Amino acid sequence: MSIAQLSLTELLRQHVTLELECIDPLRVYLNLYVPKLQYEGGARWYLRTQRGHSVPTSAGMGPLTQAFVAAVDAYAAAHPLPVLTFKPGERKDDVVAPYLAKRAGQTGLYLVGKAQEKTTTFRTHKGHGPRTRDRAPQLYRSTAMVKHYYLYGVDADFGPFFIKFSTYFPFTAKVCLNGHEWLKRQLARASVAFAPLDNGLLTCADPARAQALADTLTAEKIEACVRRWLAELPQPFSAAEQAAGYGYDLSILQAEFALTQVLDRPLTGRCFFEEVIRENLDLGRPDQMQLIFDRRVTRRTPGRFRTRVLTEGVVPSLHVEYKKSKVKQYHKEGQALRTETTINDTYDFAIGRALHNLPALREIGFAANRRLLHVESLSHDCLIGEDHLHTVTSPIRVDDQRAAGLRFGDRRVHALMHALCLFALAPTGFRHREFRDHVAQLQSREPDTYSASAMTDDLRRLRLHGPS
User: Fold this and answer.
1) Is residue 342 within 8 Å of 362, Cβ to Cβ?
2) 163 and 287 belong to one structural domain
3) Residue 21 falls within a domain, yes or no?
4) Cα–Cα distance between 32 and 173 in angstroms, integer?
């Protein structure tokens, strides 16, 4: 049988040579911030108690910036490190790549970059009013274009990384680590042979071992890495200030969770992927988003629900958006099917931004990848497979519950399936009574002759067989 004639389920079952789920922080940023300095009152208290300013204003922040800039410049000169100034619109990864290539596996910082970027800071305005305290200078949060330092390095555990520091108070920072690079280093230490794929694995001598190692990448290991480098690098806050509660905390700015499925035939895999795209242009609809993210979508749910197919060169990619998060799918380097869920705002899923919430986000991200493939499988191959047909039509036992099979030749089963289709687009679900009326009508029966207990039994059989 030609590969073009295979269903997505058969393709992934018969032609995938390696499958790996991994946190993919190539685009994941962790926020470094001082909780006490995220609001005006905290900034005023810091300037008064730690810096001795009786009237806290933004003018008192200037010496802090000068001291921090001098400390970073002195660190770069002492090691010594090349210092670059990034141009506006320049792709930083391309500029840094030659310097990283010279490291040849060595650990430590290798480059300092400078860039003017927007950040949140504090400004001063003079109030107006009849009382003296109303006319006193007041701090307020604002944004400004300020100088940022990009500190690029290679970690023994995580490989290439960078930390971006703002040089203006309250000196927020961002950290970028790479989960696949971490995994490659763990495989090398465990003496497991593998061939790398750009930000992934192409082959692996022990896939089960690789997946087990990928599952051990925890929030604790990520935080330990960040804390290790913070202790090494210049700090805008003194040791005494950190002891007083002005140390950095970590939060998740963006998290990406990837499922990589390497195909044995790159060319035919790409052709099949393009066919999958054509069959799933409606994935961005609210009812489909409910299936992929397992979240209720109503008219009040913010964001645009859409499907986009983007083409970079000749490689298409499928993008499905939900609030501020999205799922992206593409044919990676012509060799693997890559499905990535990127969570840009953890509050989309009622989860906090603190780093310890990473396990909950991991569960959501990986589940969304699997659900997307499941929805695509159903849309690409509408006919139920032989094994699924046998499972649904045969008796089943789940724990201590038994249920008869759903025989497709039974008119009652046909009516049940037909009624489910009627409610497929109902975001709030359906009630037992109204559903029973539809099933009875499809059987050409009066609702009174189709009892509530019979309806309950049919729904119980459907739930236990789970034909989702």
Assistant:
1) no
2) no
3) yes
4) 5
Domain that holds residue 234: 29-178+226-249
Mark whether 364 and 403 lie in a shared domain. no
The verdict on 160 and 289 lying in the same domain is no
Instruction: Please state whether beta strands 83-85 and 108-126 pair in parallel, antiparallel, or not at all (unpaired).
Output: parallel
Tell me the pLDDT tens digit for each residue of 298-332: 666 666 665 555 555 556 777 888 788 888 888 88
- Neighbouring C-beta atoms of residue 341, cutoff 10 Å: 29
Residue position matching structure tokens 């390497």: 262
Is residue 286 domain-shared with residue 405, that is, in the same domain? no
**Total of domains in the chain:** 3
Phi-psi region of 345 (alpha: psi -120 to 50; beta: other; left: phi over 0): beta
Q: Residues with Cβ < 8 Å from 227, sequence gap 6 or more?
A: none
Measured CA to CA, the distance from residue 30 to residue 327 in angstroms comes to 20
Burial of 86 (0-12, 13-18, 19+ CB in 10 A): middle
Three-class SS state of 439 = helix
Residue 285: pLDDT band with limits 50, 70, 90: low
pLDDT confidence tier of residue 34, bands split at 50, 70 and 90: very high
DSSP for 222-242, please give it. HHHHHHHHHHHS--SS-HHHH
pLDDT tens track for 251-281: 998 888 989 888 887 666 666 666 676 666 5
The verdict on residue 94 lying in a domain is yes
CA distance readout (Å), 17 to 261, 263, 276, 330, 337? 7, 6, 20, 17, 11
In a domain, 200, yes or no: no
In a domain, residue 64? The reply is: yes
Q: What is the pLDDT of residues 380-422, one digit of tens each?
A: 655 455 556 666 677 877 777 777 777 766 778 778 777 777 6
